[in-house]
Design goal:
- The chain is mainly α.
- The chain is about 75% helix and about 0% strand.
- The protein has seven helices and no strands.
- Helix 3 runs antiparallel to helix 5 and helix 6 runs antiparallel to helix 7.
Length: about 170
């Protein structure tokens, strides 16, 4: 009987916004990964090539390097946000690192990473599914994330969203 009450109490607790944001981001990264695996399978089966020029491979390598830098920079900056948890947060606090240019740098990093791989492999479905997965995560998962952050930080996050459009 006591164990049942504890489970009910835990299940009735509201999940902290930070936990909800991380859960949403984990789901969006999973969408990228699953669609990437499906695209590789499709490219293996159908083998549709889209580039006749070998210039796309160096561009793909550039995208791989750029994406790695963006993702690592975003993750480091994200760890710095933890210091803001107990402070009076203003819009300027969000304007750090790659978050100065985009509200979702890790997703842009994943976009460039997968596009780079698709260019190097000359893989039609990898490029197609990369764009599809980016659009799904941008318009579904990131909208959810932003509503949670707006709920958590209020007008300050809304002001940040006005300053950083992407």
């Amino acid at each position: 009987m006591e164990g049942e009450n504890k489970v009910e109490q835990v299940s009735n607790q509201k999940i902290h916004p930070k936990g909800r944001v991380h859960r949403i981001l984990a789901h969006s990264y999973t969408v990228f990964f699953v669609l990437f695996l499906i695209s590789v399978l499709f490219d293996f089966i159908f083998q549709i090539k889209i580039f006749n020029s070998s210039i796309m491979a160096p561009i793909g390598v550039f995208f791989l390097i750029l994406s790695t830098i963006i993702i690592l920079w975003a993750q480091k900056t994200g760890r710095d946000f933890k210091k803001l948890e107990n402070k009076d947060v203003r819009a300027e606090h969000f304007l750090r690192g790659p978050y100065y240019y985009t509200r979702s740098p890790t997703h842009f990093g994943l976009l460039f990473l997968m596009l780079g791989f698709g260019m190097i492999a000359n893989a039609f479905f990898v490029i197609l599914f990369t764009i599809v997965s980016f659009l799904i995560t941008k318009f579904y998962f990131l909208n959810k994330q932003e509503s949670i952050l707006t709920e958590k930080y209020g007008a300050h996050y809304t002001e940040y969203k006005k300053q950083v459009k992407f």
